[in-house]
Amino acid sequence: MKKSISIFLITVLLVSSTSSVSIAKAKNEKHKHKNQHSYSNISVDNNFIKKVFNIGDKEIRYFKDFNIGTEELSLILYLYSISNKDITTTDINFIVENKDNLPRLTWYLGLPPIIFEDGIITLRHPKLDRTLPPLGQKVYKNSRKGPVKEKIDIDDNKYEYEYDSKPARIKEKIEIKADKYEYKYENKRLGIEEKLEVKYPSYKYEYHYKNERTGENIKKEGRGYPLSPRYFYQKLKDKKERESNFNVSIRIDINLSR
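and the corresponding structure tokens:
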């Protein structure tokens, strides 16, 4: 498991990072819905999507074929950027089937289904490539032992994830229940502690970041909103207008040749 250079939000908030998309060419992948929505008339703001997510016309045409418009696409790509997960044909299948139930997607990505009212709560620590449950699988357990320990356990009522790297002195923990989302990160080597808690159904949240090296001590709290592609898209547009060089990174592992 490795650190990522980019720093992102834990949830569907706006972040300030600049990086590029990595397009991996998978071999002989076919999408079972591929021809279902071809030549769709769905509206997509190509220029906006390209500027924010650093992807090209070929990638945008691919998503457009599945009736994924600008607002939905912005939110979906953002969720994948902050979860640090590759978008594959399996993911596209799941997204198309659950396009009207995006909170189900956030569950598998280990994220809270919430948009914060102030628009910006940035997770400031380097991201980790962590184990995620297979999309659509309701019960899943996996673990590894050694200097780097990792454990994930999910079912219909819970999502529990723990990561502990003794060499890097890093710990990460995610716990999701029906009434609460909790995220904790600790990096003793860098002197960083970070926590996020969201309570349901009130959508109240608390965020705390502390960095002993820099002296930063940031606390935020408030009440967020349920996931809304339209609301998120407006926040994203506002962010891009304020910061013209703002963009985020995504990783696509799909054969886009035609």
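(Above: one complete record from the training split.) The first helix runs from residue 46 to 53.
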